[in-house]
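Quick check before the chapter quiz. The format below is the same one you will see on the exam, so make sure you can read both the input and the output lines.
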Amino acid sequence: MITLSPRLVEKISSVAGLEVECLRKEAFPVLNAPRQRFVRVLSLLKNRQDLGFLVLSDIIVVDRSPCSELLEVNYIVTSLQLKARLCVRVTVEDAEPLESISSLYKSAKWFEEEASRLFNITFLETPSISPTTSLHDRPYLQS
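Here is the expected output.
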């Protein structure tokens, strides 16, 4: 992956209507999105032909406790067309539900399930994930 040019960072900022932070030269840029707008921002980044952030690479949750009661939910999106990654960051309070993006990115349901189980984040309208096989079906996997 290459770093985004200042011109491209400016373009993403204007499309999203938010400022893009470039924290370190070697890290990918961060777009801080309000909870109410982050799905719309991700949709714009994905659906714009000139940007094409079509791949959700990961959802990373950062727990800032004991310093803060807030959780940071970081959506890492990748544009193969631009050969670039971008982090869309949303800050939520502990018990605050967050809108699911599984209708936008199919891989999101797995990442949301993991975040839900590990950090007790409620994602609204997320499809439930049932295991494809159980350990009872494959006894050699049990330890």
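If your answer matched, good. The two ends are 39 Å apart (CA to CA).
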